[in-house]
Design brief:
Length: 580
């Protein structure tokens, strides 16, 4: 008895020690020093410029990868007609939104042969961060806006206005969704081949620079800056990188060679809106981000996420492998088809497991599927699951990810609060982390600064398909000289709905609303009616024929007439339901 009791106590002590070992405290990686300096300086975007540093420091990527092949001596997306028009940010610190939209438009034009004009106005007004509409931004803010599904909208839907923050248009949905946002870095006069190969293989990139008027040569449209970015006339700026020219002479630079960049200061500035930055510039192209692998916004019906501000921090346990998990409650039946997350290093490997439960004890139960992938570049990526995983409305599910980041000891991508920048919030029971994949702890319990932190893991869900249905409500019989109203009803439609009425196979002039009224009714109004309904998908859905019979005046009994009128009134109250 005594021996058995001692054994149980000893086993319990061992278990506690084991938990203590695996539940090592996680630590945040250092914050970007440029962000700290900007916070201390109180610097925001300046009119006509607009780059504000992010808390995320990508400098650990310097020198960690090289290009796939030696690039040619020059390359220019302009010469191939693969860039969209140069725009004008005017007196507003919105350069970052122009750089991002220009990159996104360029990828689509190069890879899908479609020309888009996205709304920089919507991005600068609806990024959601604690910066006003013209106070600047960065690539991480553009990522957050695009990846959470807020945008992009089209320029025609939300035209640019640099003077005021206009409210977003009601009922307008994003046009596309970005599934890949690789992040590359470049040290002055370092290895350029990785960025160059990315431009050739994918398209333009959104890049950061420091603008100082004294560094620009308006005769040659070249730029060469040698400072540290902290001077009184230095301003953060962002442009779209479209190519390079190894032979381009830049006055003042020790050797030829320059990046080709698209600015947002009108096409009358520089070389049709473009200019050249020396390879030896000390602050240009230090961070380059692409917005690639673009799919229609309806590809995913729903996004489950706890990180509307995207990645603003990263953390780890001192090694290059760590586990993170997000718990969600399904609001509808559906199936998880993909997971989106961030890689902190090139060639990050991820193992994604979906569980059909929430947190229990020290971890998760009921694994429903596992998918592994290697992410070739740092940045955001969507991983398609090997097999879709069903979720049930009201039920909890968990998406857990094992991250392994070569040469980098802070593998976990996180969102957290930063005063004056990101008003992130978190709650217990949302995000968990682990150093061994077995014992997890709630992120909010990790200590100082963790109470607002969540993992950057998104579950992308398809909802059950709902077939649109169209019909006509009204009275099939009416007396000559009376009045008849037919009402179209449509279910499971998407976005804005349009109507077109036909009689006996011929369009009725001007009949393009939800209702069709015949008053007074004559013998020629008898016939077969249909309504054709279109929605955002541009597909046409036609009702079954509704046959109207016109009877002589007085042919319907009074009670019958009243009954038909009541039926028509009841049917006319059918609500138009749309799938959103």
């Amino acid at each position: 008895m005594r021996s058995s009791a001692c054994q149980r106590v000893f086993a319990g002590v061992l278990l506690l020690l084991a938990v203590a070992v695996v539940a090592e405290a996680a630590e945040f990686a250092p914050v970007n020093p440029d962000f700290v300096a900007a916070q201390m300086k109180g610097a925001g975007g300046v009119e006509g410029f607009g780059y504000v540093p992010s808390p995320v420091d990508w400098s650990h990527l310097n020198g960690t990868a090289t290009g796939k092949a030696a690039p040619p001596a020059s390359y220019d997306l302009r010469a191939q007609g693969l860039m969209t028009s140069v725009k004008n940010q005017s007196s507003c610190g919105a350069c970052w939104s122009f750089a991002a939209c220009g990159t996104l438009e360029g990828w689509i034009k190069r890879n899908q042969s479609v020309t888009y004009d996205f709304s920089e106005n919507h991005m600068k007004n609806n990024h959601g961060f604690m910066l006003s509409h013209c106070a600047g931004g960065n690539n991480q803010m553009a990522m957050a806006y695009l990846l959470r599904g807020t945008g992009p909208l089209l320029e025609a839907q939300d035209p640019y206005n640099p003077a005021i923050s206009t409210p977003p248009p009601a009922g307008v949905l994003p046009s596309v969704y970005v599934r890949s946002a690789p992040v590359l870095t470049y040290a002055p006069n370092g290895d350029r081949s990785l960025i160059q190969n990315m431009i050739m293989e994918e398209g333009p990139m959104s890049v950061v620079m420091i603008w100082n008027d004294a560094a620009f040569n308006s005769t040659t449209n070249t730029y060469y800056y040698t400072g540290n970015g902290a001077g009184p006339n230095d301003y953060g700026h962002m442009v779209t990188l479209v190519g390079w020219d190894d032979a381009k002479n830049v006055p003042g630079a020790a050797a030829p060679g320059a990046w080709i960049c698209k600015n947002s200061w009108t096409s009358s500035w520089g070389e049709g809106g473009y200019f050249y930055i020396s390879y030896r510039d000390t602050k240009a192209v230090g961070e380059a981000v692409g917005y690639y692998d673009v799919v229609p916004a309806g590809t995913y019906d729903q996004i489950y996420q706890h990180d509307p501000f995207g990645m603003t921090a990263y953390a780890g346990f001192g090694g290059n492998t760590a586990w993170g998990a997000n718990v969600f409650t399904a609001t509808q039946d559906g199936q998880i088809t993909a997971v989106g997350t961030y890689a902190l290093a090139h060639n990050t490997s991820v193992q994604i497991t979906v569980y059909g439960s929430g947190f229990s004890g020290s971890g998760f139960t009921t694994p429903l599927g596992t998918t592994s992938a290697t992410l070739p570049y740092a940045g955001y990526h969507v991983v398609t699951l090997a097999t879709p995983v069903p979720v049930t409305s009201g039920g909890k599910f968990t998406v857990a990810v094992r991250y392994t980041t070569p040469g980098m000891t802070s593998p976990l991508p996180l969102e957290r609060y930063y005063a004056g920048f990101a008003n992130a919030t978190a709650a217990a029971g949302q995000s968990y982390l682990s150093d061994n994949g077995t014992v997890y702890e709630d992120v909010t319990l990790q200590g100082s600064g963790w109470n607002t932190a969540n993992l950057c893991i998104k579950a992308l869900v398809d909802l059950p398909s709902q077939t649109p249905e169209v019909g006509i409500a009204g009275s099939p019989k009416v007396e000559a000289g009376g009045s008849l109203t037919l009402r179209a009803y449509a279910t499971n439609m998407t976005g804005t709905v349009a109507y077109k009425w036909r009689k006996n196979g011929t369009d009725i002039d001007g009949a393009v609303s939800e209702t069709l009224t015949l008053d007074p009714v004559g013998p020629l109004d008898a016939g077969s009616y249909v309504v054709v309904v279109t929605d955002e998908s541009k597909a046409e859905f036609t009702s079954t024929p509704f046959v109207v019979t016109v009877l002589p005046e007085g042919a319907l009994p009074a009670a019958g007439t009243a009954g038909l009128i009541a039926l028509a009134a009841a049917l006319s109250t059918l609500a138009l339901r749309r799938r959103v």
